[in-house]
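=== Structure Prediction Worksheet ===
Name of assembly: unnamed complex
Input type: mixed (protein and possibly other molecules)
Chain count: two
Listed entries:
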Amino acid sequence: MSDYPEASAAPVEAFEPPYYVAVFTAVRSQEQSGYSETNARMEDLVNDVPGFLGMDHAQTPGGLGITVGYFRDADALMEWRNNAEHRAAQQRGQAEWYQSYTLHVAKVERSHGFTRVHAPQSATAG
Amino acid sequence: MSDYPEASAAPVEAFEPPYYVAVFTAVRSQEQSGYSETNARMEDLVNDVPGFLGMDHAQTPGGLGITVGYFRDADALMEWRNNAEHRAAQQRGQAEWYQSYTLHVAKVERSHGFTRVHAPQSATAG
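=== Predicted Assembly ===
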């Protein structure tokens, strides 16, 4: 969890396509024992995967959470998918932590980003 | 905004690949005048796009927001991308509402979902 404040400060920037996104959308259950520790461990582990590019996370309080992982290519994603500790965490997630979730794995075809340089213009300035 | 409570109750389910995701990650600025009304209008508009499949949204309070739109094919996404009212909203977003954002457009290659049927097993049950 220690990475969340930094991760939320700004979205991960656009990379040069093609690359992969793993979009994980989830609603958690009432049983959250051990979730935070495992989540922090997974963040450490995925950072060690060659080709892992970054991660975005947003959580509506009491509602939907979305985590987006960015990977350079299918091999990087495959390595993460096959990680034994990751697989064990997924099984525990189904057994305990998640009410429902969906995973979408997709190849990015185009991307772009925007970062503000100046303060927003006032309504009368336009 | 009226769709958010429903949208957050459960993640959008997995569709049969291929389909497209538009992953929009953003941090908003201090200037939010008119944002909610425009956001609600965009949600209505995108629902009218043939091939629009659904949308997930999560918002960390004071932090990152992630919106994921699901589209049947590239044509559906193109129609939404070219919508004149949508383009005007994007321009206003850059001028006023967003501190920074990234858009990743990607073709889904695989997906799956999970929905709990029973209550989570207790820690001693496993």
